Amino acid sequence: MSSRTFEDKQPQPRASGSGFEFLKGVGQVAGGTLLSATMLTSSIVAGGLVGLAVSFRNLPDVRQLRSFLPSETTYIYDIKGKLLTSIHGEANREVMPLDRISPDLKRAVLASEDSDFYYHHGINPKGVGRAVVTNWSAGGVREGGSTISMQLVKNLFLSHKRAFTRKIAEAVLAIRLEQILTKDQILEMYLNQVYWGHNNYGVQTAARSYFNKSAEYLNLAESAMMAGLIQAPEDYSPFIHMNKAKEQQKIVLGRMKELNWITQEEYDNALKQPIKLGKIRSFQGSALPYVTNAVAHEIAKKFGREALLKGGMRIQTTVDTNFQNMAEDTVKNWHDILRGQGLSRNQIALVAIDPRTHFVKALVGGVDSKTSEFNRATQALRQPGSAFKPFVYYTAFATGKYGPDTTVYDTPVGYRDGDGWYYPRNYDGGYGGAMSIRTALMQSRNVPVIKVGKAVGMNKVVETCRTLGILSPMEPVTSLPLGAIGVTPLEMAGAYATFANYGWQSPTTIIARVTDSSGNVLLDNTPKPVQVLDPWASAAIVDTMRSVINGGTGKNAAIDRPAAGKTGTTSSEKDIWFVGTVPQLTTAVWVGRDDNRTLASGATGGTMVAPIWRNFMMKALKDVPVEKFKSPYQFPRPKSN
Questions:
Q1: Which residues 6+ apart lie within 8 Å of 401 measured at CB?
Q2: Gap between the Cα atoms of 595 and 347, Å rounded
Q3: What is the mean pLDDT of residues 99-112?
Q4: Which partner from 257, 399, 458, 556 sits 20 to 30 angstroms from 233, CA to CA?
Q5: Which are the catalytic amino acids?
Q6: Cα within 13 Å of Cα(602), Cβ side
Q7: Is the pLDDT of residue 456 over 80?
Q8: pTM of the model
């Protein structure tokens, strides 16, 4: 320690940086002469604690703090960087480097908690001695005398029960701590660890909550108020007791002036400075619950729930907030319209994907996330009905033996099914005879698609679905082409998006990028498309689905540009769909009831869901240039075996 006297150490209230350089020359101010008994006790206690440091062998090993990573809050943003929500466990924390924390805040905390921090070695004999005398006189623990190092080890390692033995343990651990970490490291860890009230841990989340700004930009008035919270954060919270908060602020500013760390003018100006409060942020809801819940589920599955709650991740989603809000408004409006059409208790899910990147652009899991958090877009396994048929016809096209104009027969047929027979029927109960595959899909005929599925092999159809990213359970049964399986709207949108991109596919994702709090990339979902389907067969099925909108069951989905899609209606009208695409956007819309009961007699995807799709796409594509699909003739047709 320097041999200069306290008077030789001149204060530098405007010093920049951190640590010893930040406080270089800032001296201690004599606060009166302590009783000789106090000084004697201080020396005895200090010497005794050094000896105890050798004998306390059962205390935690502070060396583990060299690699200590505090729990941090995870933040989720939209594609443009707008904060959607924060996710954390007990501790809402964002770690801030010491050199980015306001110098005023560092000075205020040191003045309030440990003005001799840069001159002691973990314990402050003067402070400990004063506390010992006070506690001895009071007959119990009344004053702590804790240094910042002691407070830090208490917060990290020890119980908060007030006891004399715990104070000794604090002192021992503090001495050990200062042997392995620098002062700056200890101060940084303390400022990021300390509790500031309202579930805010560390300076950054506290600054954002109390003053709606980064800890980097806190002024002197705000810094003194924050420093005054440490001893009893909720009691002195300006959100609850502004008068008490101002009293604490004045005490801290007075201490800083007493230490000559600020001038009288700075003291006066800080007291006059208006305080503009932020708002309590912990455990706030999400701006886009369906999106952030889906993201949280994916992150927990990939990295673990502990990493999600405490890992301090920065997650950029693929969703634009305004676009998502438009999609949610569309769903709410059509919920009311469908109720007027007799579809009571209906739920709607909508997923929109960019087929060029497979980035999710909108994901709506229900009519109202406030009344139901169940995400039907990602979690509801519902039968797609005839919206499944394009998977069968694509599989046939990929063999090279079939094309959109291949003749199929809509005639009665029966198949052995266990001990009995299965006789497929069309929705209208009749048969159309010979027709092209294009016509069969336009009219959504059931019999022809089952015949084609049996001809190419239902196992091949299942393989196609797996390639398209449909992972829901399915069996290669005769009725498979009619969509008698459970799929999610997200799976359906992703599959059609691969068709729209002529067989090129990146994994469908709602997460663009994930970093840790230091900016290190943990996950980068930059699209890396792979050709997974035959391009001619993909273009051919898209071309065939264009006929569905141009003159078939999906004519109510027609928009002012080339589009392809397919209706879906299950038996008993329990699930109705429309899944469709343009070259730049693929959207799946599902309507059904959570109790899986019939929506209404005669409810179909073509009459009730296609208009929803049309309405959404007209708004979504308002400023998007019209683009044509590539013709199948631009690709080589696969050779038939």
A1: 640
A2: 10
A3: 95
A4: 257
A5: 113, 386
A6: 3
A7: yes
A8: 0.76
